[in-house]
Amino acid sequence: MSRSVRYTSSPLLASKTPVWRSKLIVAGIALAFAGLAGRAAYVQVVGNDFFQRQGEVRFARTLELPANRGRILDRNGLILASSVPAPSIWAIPEDVDGSKAQLAELARLLQMPMAELNKKLSNEDKSFVWIKRQVDASVGEKIHALGIKGIYQRKEYRREYPEGEAAAHVVGFTNVEDRGQEGMELAFNKDLAGHAGSRRVIKDRLGRVVEDVREQVPPVDGKDLQLSIDSKIQFFAYQKLRDAVLTHKAKAGSVVVLDSISGEVLALANYPSFSPDKRQSLSGAQLRNRALTDTFEPGSTMKPFVVALALQKGLVRPETQIQTAPGRLTIGGSTISDAHPQGLLTVNQVIQKSSNVGTVKMAMQLQPREMWEMFTQVGFGQKPQVPFPGAVSGRLRAYKTWRPIEQATMSYGYGVSTSLFQLAHAYSVFARDGDLVPVSMLKSADPAVGVRVISEKNALAMRNMLHMVTGPGGTAHKAQTMGYSVGGKTGTAHKQEGKGYADKKYRGFFVGIAPTEKPRIVVAVMIDEPSNGKYFGGDVAAPVFSETVQQTLRMLGLPPDMAVKPQIVTNPVEESF
Amino acid sequence: MTRLNLVLLVAVLVSALYLVRTQYESRRLFVELEKTTALSRQLDSDKERLQVEKRAQATPLRVEQISRERLQMRSATPAITQYVTYKNAAADGSAP
Asked: Which residues of A touch B33 (CB under 8 A)?
């Protein structure tokens, strides 16, 4: 049979390979290892930062922790504005895949016509479309339950204003990005907004957060803001004002209620107003906070300041008699007249009957500088110290430029301009014992310390005069209110139009204090262009004052200071045998 | 020598497996914590929302309307109010 081959000893099989070949292989492998080591050194030492960063980009995420916007509260802690979650619905159009019925249901939930929804979803070039921003949380849940592919929600917050239009001008509103745009929302935006926090986390394949990389920066929530507004007083003031504006077919109106002891603003309402939630078709007329941004000539409401100054300078006493007949007075070629000519009047009666001639006679005994100082001290021509966006200063010209006729007209409120808020503030001089209280929009616990303008005795005398205005023979008996003594001054001014005064356009206003014995509040009411026959301040504004005072004092828990005839109230019950 | 090495090898393996488990457990717990935190935030904002809703139901406008229309109530005036004073209040000077 065959013989086996002896490989080991076969000379044919003896290796003839040169040694260098094996050495070459070894060297090649060594080189490869050196290459690997070099690469490792490069990755781990030289380019370490770069690779570390690249790795992190792929699994670490920075999450923003949004801060909650602070609430706005009224003086009793009731909510005037607060943020509530309101999901925004968005979609990736090309991914949207839902049955017709599902999409119809979605459109119904969003209260959106089907055509509009289809239009939004038909734009397939876009990878992101908002379908509707900030819907109700409950709607968001229902949409989530529908489970349509390609429809997503983003968590957002929306501002809610439970008081609605009654407090709209004070509170203001925010935009869709949650930034203050008007009113207190704007003025205190910084405090309310807070600071967003952040955290660095590692996310897993499914997008779940699995680890914190470093310390979190916790969000700082915005501070709550407690206003001096009392939402009940605010509401009643707004309601009465609205009724009056509608009854008198007026263009607009404002009312301001000040607490004369603490200087807090209890209510500040304007009509027309707006609903802060529905701002689609807002007009400037609705938006304006007239009480602070609109100035007008204060008319007769200016007279008490001139009289107070004359008392203060010792020129007259409340009983001093002044001849106002024949109801006309000529100064520098211009004639000043009274609407209802009177005869011999005491200073008290000059205010009570609102005589222009009487006031001018007192004013002409005063230096322009003295009058200017008085007006400035009570805040005319100066921006009120309230943090309201757009608050105006009004106009009070330097006394050196006053001509005598101008000094005369200014004494009964023409040739100067002021906002209703300034007017209310100025009257706090009479409500307090002759000092001007600093006003505040925020709740403050301490009684305020004022700056003295007139003496205590003269303030008391002025209060008596103001009280007489609302009494028999005064211009504003409609300002009286049941149970409380009131005092105030009416004003009716022609509206300026272009260069002169408009023929039949007026502003009626009333500024007053209550109760006169121990005043607690100052209320100022302005009705712009009443056009339903009546236009005198005593007719259009005084009733609003009366009702506002009644409600406010009751709400503040002040017992009546005047005797009231009790009325027995019975429900008529039908007799039966 | 070999025995010691074997023991150490086992020890390393056990410790490694334990580490894996602990890591897993810690992540699981972390996710749970996350969920709970999110829930608490959700509840917080729900509370806020409900408070606002409650407030919206109790605005002066609504209260007035309902008390006037459904309960036939009227606003009180001093004429139909009986004011009572009690001694302590009188001492404070807050009574008439």
From this structure: none
